[in-house]
Amino acid sequence: MTILDNDAIKKIRNAGIAGKKALELALTLIEPGTTLLETATKTESLIREMGMVPSFPLNLSINSEAAHYTPGINDKKTFTRGDIVKVDIGASDDGYCSDNAATVEVGESGKHSNLIDASREALKAALKVVRPNIAVSRIGAKIEEVIASFGFKPIRNLGGHGIERNDLHSTVFIPNYDDMNMTTIRPGSLIAIEPFASTGIGMIHNGQPGNIYMLDGPNIDKNGMFYREFNTLPFAARWLEGKVEKPDKVLRESLGRKQILSFPVFREHSGALISQAEHTVLVLSDEVIVTTA
Ligand code: CO
Q1: Ion ligand 1 residues within 5 Å by Cβ
Q2: Torsion-angle region of residue 109: left (phi > 0), alpha (psi -120 to 50) or beta?
Q3: Which of 91, 182, 202, 289 could form an S-S bond across to 282 if both were Cys, CB 3.0 to 4.6 Å?
Q4: pLDDT for 98-113, tens place per residue?
Q5: Catalytic site includes residue 99
Q6: What's residue 76's pLDDT?
Q7: What's domain 6-207+264-290's superfamily in CATH?
Q8: What are phi and psi of 165, to 5 degrees?
């Protein structure tokens, strides 16, 4: 973990505020018939208007999709009444990132409020137990306990993560169940806690590509366009519009050369519904700050 001086902490908090505002905006935009593309563009613009950049493209993952769908270029997909939408967004202030998520049912009939509450309440409970030097499995155990109390299963192969500068998913993994892992959260860590609740078996697999990319590999070209524009944070195909002539061609060729990777959409194994809730948490030796609260 990079040493966190006051300047870094200030940027981490700024990114938290922008991420929270963006998530709030996205939740108000999601209605039957609205396009995912319009929702993403408006939400990401708010972060840019605040003088920051999105730490990753707005994820709008529907029903059995757990994560990693962002609208593609000219995407025509719209929200349908009854869709369970996981909305996941964050901001980056000079590489210091936030990551937060919530779930909404399009049209809000309340039919799935239990599923939505399960991940939200699990997150609340996890935030109450997180403190410096806690084992990650203790956070996972709490998440599992709450989700099970609603009659659902946590997703076992998806969880929270450490966040470092320009690195949204660093090595620390925070499980959504008691995986017996005694790795501890060190003071000075920035982490994301993200319970996922499922009406199915609680496992996800990789689905189709979700229009999200990231620089990859041991030899990142630091003089190249991707690094200059996005550093090592995830980006959307959409964000290349106006920057390169033929975004699809540039992406295809860069993927072929293994300069970038493409994230697959995560799907529930059994096709079941999933809800998610997420906050970014700064764990200091004497204080725990939820930066996206
Ligand atoms: Co996250």
Answers
A1: 99, 192, 194
A2: alpha
A3: 289
A4: 999 999 999 988 999 9
A5: yes
A6: 98
A7: Creatinase/methionine aminopeptidase superfamily (3.90.230.10)
A8: -60, 125
